[in-house]
Specification:
The complex is a heterodimer.
Chain A (H helix, E strand, L loop, with lengths): L6 H26 L7 H19 L2 H25 L4 H24 L4 E2 L9 E2 L10 H5 L2 E2 H19 L1 H11 L1 H6 L4 H27 L3 E2 L6 H11 L4 H23 L4 H4 L2 H20 L1
Antiparallel strand pairs in A: 1-4, 2-3
Helix pairs in contact in A: 1-6, 1-9, 1-10, 1-11, 2-3, 2-4, 2-9, 2-10, 3-4, 3-9, 6-7, 7-9, 10-11, 10-13, 11-13
Chain B lengths: L7 H7 L6 H28 L4 H14 L1 H26 L7 H18 L4 H29 L3 H24 L30 H18 L1 H11 L1 H6 L4 H28 L12 H11 L4 H25 L5 H14 L1 H4 L8
């Protein structure tokens, strides 16, 4: 067991947290304004694909992230259009949009790059990594915390930003107001639909960046449906963290760790097919505890 | 999926024995519009990609139904979609969002595979294989329902997460215990010839399992619309509080419907391995997205069994047609999934098109 829990494991945990954390931060904004967003999965996939495509075309990973953010935002706005404006059932629209994301990325993978399954090329530029001064020289801690892609550090910063926005800013107050009682918020002159659109848009932006971290940070390639449930795990992180930035951070830590542990076990004690199901099992078990505790409180 | 609480009485009246034919046709209008919308948007995408949509759609039509072989391919593809679709419709109608079909499908197939490989060959083993398929798929789905009633974990989330667990497990079972010796793919050996469904049309994927699936569609249709249990199920889905006040036990209903829905998906997976591949091949049941197409067929038809059957065949036709289109025009096959998703998006907003009814009750 001592070999299992070493610095590399913690280092990869930090990397694995980022996409789930970013997506969950987006998801919590939607949760706060009562938009049931189950398209985190599809949005992440769109982001992952766009990041690779733009990075390949321009040779710039920064533009790749920007493209992913924009694509995520636009895709997420579709949820706003169909659910907020056209009043479609959030679950039906969500299922359809996830299918759309999966279909369109595969379609584009084949029409743009002429490949099936996965796309890799030396022209795809991966995210640059940062060595944090001072911290990087501390033994162990430096190895764990330093040398990650800049999106990883951005995700930590965003936890603080989202917290300040939600609890210290006027627009955040409006957002929470819409979530608690949209009728009352509307009576006070808050444009409920506009707040919802804003939340959905920012959510899409964050989830798009999460996708970029998947395809340009973790690896440097695109694989069909590579989000593989991480959007759903992020949704669970929102539930576990009760739509609070700090809670969401803690939940993401757990899932990032189980993700990293799963990959780690692949190499050693467990067959790879069993190791990959690890994060989903942990997610389910975490839900059992949290949801039953909620029941007792009621 | 109807969340409008006041809708319950209308829902039941809509499907009463005497409801008028004209009402039925009116219900079909948004469906036709959604399909047309999907076709038009798909055409625009082809134009953008630099293809002639008319040539492409002609190729799609020929690929779907143009030749006897293509027609058979469409029918063969419709079998699993149909089975998954009726299972989805059953759960959706009860307001239970079972989106864990992929896991139930592979587990059902695994159950059938175990029987087919280790039981003495013969028709008896086929029956046992189908039953074990039901049990495997049904149990997995029941668990998801149980997690909701026991731990309040939404079925929507648990069933989806459990897809990954089931597919990983089945993949492992093949790899570690059932793999064909000396083979290079992750697949089991072929089943004995006596433990296979005969082909209905030789040289195609249409096999006798189609009758198993059709039988289930008819039974579920009757159950849903001509039985007390079905009335309770629809009531449960339309207005849960009303149903509970009427004496329906929510836990039992949830467990039962989820087990039944998953069982049907399981038997569909069993039919697929017994009738098409004659072995369990890793990812062969998940890659074609059978359950998702079935769920979409259920949504498109508003969970009506007859409409669902038509929608399943339609989606199967679009998919096999798209393969033909890909061969003829090099437009990727996956366009069919995009078009399907657009149709569901359009049908999802039908409530917006409909004027608010004058009488609510």
């Amino acid at each position: 067991m001592t070999e299992l829990f070493d610095v590399t494991l913690l280092n990869s945990t930090i990397r694995m947290i980022a996409p789930i954390l970013l997506a969950a931060l987006g998801g919590l904004l939607c949760e706060r304004v009562l938009v049931f967003n189950i398209i985190l999965e599809g949005t992440m996939l769109i982001g992952a694909f766009t990041a690779v495509a733009v990075s390949y075309a321009t040779g710039s990973s920064v533009l790749g992230v920007a493209g992913a953010a924009l694509a995520g935002l636009l895709f997420s706005l579709l949820l706003g259009l169909f659910v907020v404006t056209l009043r479609g059932d959030a679950i039906v629209v969500g299922i359809a949009l996830n299918m759309l994301a999966s279909g369109i990325t595969t379609f584009l993978l084949r029409s743009l790059f002429g490949v099936k399954g996965q796309f890799t090329s030396p022209n795809i530029q991966s995210l640059s990594t940062w060595d944090i001064p001072v911290i990087k020289d501390i033994p162990i801690v430096g190895e764990i915390l330093s040398g990650h892609s800049w999106v990883v550090y951005l995700s930590w910063l965003l936890v603080i930003v989202v917290y300040i926005f939600l609890f210290r800013h006027r627009a955040g107050l409006h957002m929470r107001g819409v979530g608690q009682n949209d009728m009352a918020a509307s009576t006070l002159g808050i444009n409920v639909a506009r707040i919802r659109y804003a939340a959905v848009a920012v959510c899409g932006l964050l989830v798009g960046i999460a996708g970029a971290q998947l395809s340009l940070g973790q690896v440097t390639l695109y694989v069909e449906n590579m989000s593989s449930g991480r959007g759903w795990i992020a949704l669970v992180a929102v539930m576990l963290g009760r739509a609070h930035p700090v809670g969401v951070l803690l939940a993401s830590l757990l899932f990032g760790f189980s993700d990293a542990l799963g990959y780690r076990l692949q190499g050693s004690s467990l067959p790879s097919q069993i190791a990959v199901i690890m994060p989903y099992v942990v997610t389910l078990i975490a839900l059992f505890f949290q949801q039953s505790r909620k029941k007792q409180q009621v | 999926m109807d969340q409008d609480k006041l809708k319950a009485p209308i829902e039941t009246r809509e499907h009463s024995f005497f409801h008028s034919i004209t009402k039925k046709w009116k219900d079909a209008i948004p469906i036709v519009l959604a399909i047309l919308g999907g076709i038009i948007i798909g055409g625009v995408m082809m134009l953008v990609a630099g293809h002639n949509p008319f040539t492409a759609y002609t190729a799609l039509l020929v690929g779907a139904v143009g030749e006897p072989y293509n027609l058979a391919a469409t029918l063969g593809r419709a079998i699993p979609i149909l089975g998954c679709g009726i299972a989805a419709a059953l759960a959706f109608k009860a307001g239970l969002i079972n989106i864990g079909g992929e896991g139930q499908l592979v587990l059902g197939a695994l159950g059938a595979t175990l029987v087919a490989l280790f039981f003495p060959p013969g028709w008896f083993s086929i029956i046992v294989a189908l039953l074990v398929g039901v049990i495997f798929g049904g149990f997995w789905s029941f668990l998801s329902g149980f997690f909701q009633t026991k731990f309040r974990v939404p079925i929507l989330i648990s069933s989806l997460l459990m897809n990954y667990i089931a597919t990983g497990f089945v993949s492992y079972m093949i790899f570690a215990h059932l793999i064909e010796p000396g083979g290079s793919r992750n697949q089991t050996p072929l089943f004995p010839e006596a433990t296979r469904f005969a082909k209905l049309i030789p040289g195609t994927t249409v096999h006798w399992g189609i009758f198993v699936v059709l039988f289930i569609v008819v039974i579920v249709g009757f159950l849903m619309f001509r039985s007390v249990a079905g009335y309770e199920l629809r009531m449960f889905g339309a207005n849960r509080e009303f149903a509970e006040a009427g004496g329906i036990k929510p836990k039992r209903m949830t467990h039962l419907v989820m087990a039944l829905s998953g069982g049907i998906v399981g038997i569909t997976g069993a039919c697929q391995v017994l009738g098409v591949y004659y072995r369990l091949i890793d990812t062969s049941l998940t890659l074609p997205g059978y359950y998702w197409s079935g769920a979409m067929a259920a949504i498109l038809s508003n969970n009506n069994p007859i409409g669902m059957a038509l929608a399943s065949i339609f989606f199967a036709a679009v998919q096999t047609g798209a393969s033909g289109m890909e061969r003829a025009t090099e437009i990727p096959f996956e366009l069919s999934y995009v078009v399907q998703a657009i149709m569901i998006l359009l049908i999802a907003v039908r409530g917006f098109l409909k004027p608010v009814p004058k009488e609510t009750l």
